[in-house]
Every structure is written in structure tokens, then in C-alpha cells.
Amino acid sequence: MNDHEHDEKHMRTALAKARESEEMDEVPVGAVLVDGHGSVLAAAGNRVVSTHDPSGHAEMRVLRQAAEKVANYRLPGTTMYVTLEPCAMCAAALVHARVSRLVYGADDPKAGAVTSLYNIGTDARLNHVFTVSKGVLGRECGNLLKEFFRKRRAAKR
Description:
Helix content: 40-55%
Mean pLDDT: 97
Shape: globular
Number of strands: 5
Strand order of the largest sheet: 2-1-3-4-5
Low-confidence stretches: none
Strand content: 15-25%
Number of helices: 5
């Protein structure tokens, strides 16, 4: 399996976690953290509403789970897969955790802090940088979010 196939495989797992979040009426975002050997350390979806936790984003939940699993808050050599470009909070947590690579699906022009609005993660002024690959299954990731918010708006009418 080549790198592109690995990226799509793990993004499909992130999409499955996003769909689980959607079933709980959470914004459908999913994330997966993979170690340097390609083994999944953690996978989760958003749980902001159901847990009453403003930091309950998929990326934050995955970082917590993986750090607990390896008994270290530093996660070097890992790759984060997430269906939506991370916000500033999540991007900063990726820097702090020393994640090596970020792969995301859909851009977030309103809150994206990796390429859309800010360059957290690739800004050399920070004490750690990570590589970024964007657009992996981007259409599918974006459509999931668009459909979720379309249904939500229609329900409010």
C-alpha cells in the first residue's frame, strides 16, 4: 500500500468517527492518530455538546487518548488524520504534542488555523512544526459537513 492509499484508509476511519458524531447531533468531525508504523493509537469524533466540553473536538480527544495510551504527552513520529482543518486550539495542541504530520480533508475558511486563516504548525517561529497534507477525501469530508448544516438549518424553519 502506498502513502496515498494509507492516507485514504485512515481518513475513511476518521470519516466513520465523524458520522458517529453526527448521529449524536454533534458537528461531524472525526480524527485518527497513527504512529510511525501505521498503527492506530486513537480515533474519535466531536463530543462538544454531549460532554459540555468546549475542548471536546475530535483532535483533542484523540490526543488525550493517545497520550494516555503511550503514557506521554509528547507524540513524536505520529500522523493526525482529521476530516476538517483544525481550529487554533487543536492546531496548537498538535504543536505542543509534537505531532509530525497532519492530514486533513476539508478546508475551514471560517476557523481553519493550519492553512486557511493562520499557519499554526508550519510557522517556523513556533518551537515545533509539522508537515501538512490537505484535501485527502476532501469532497467527501466537506459534503458531510455541508449536509449536516443544511439539515440543521432546515429543521429550524
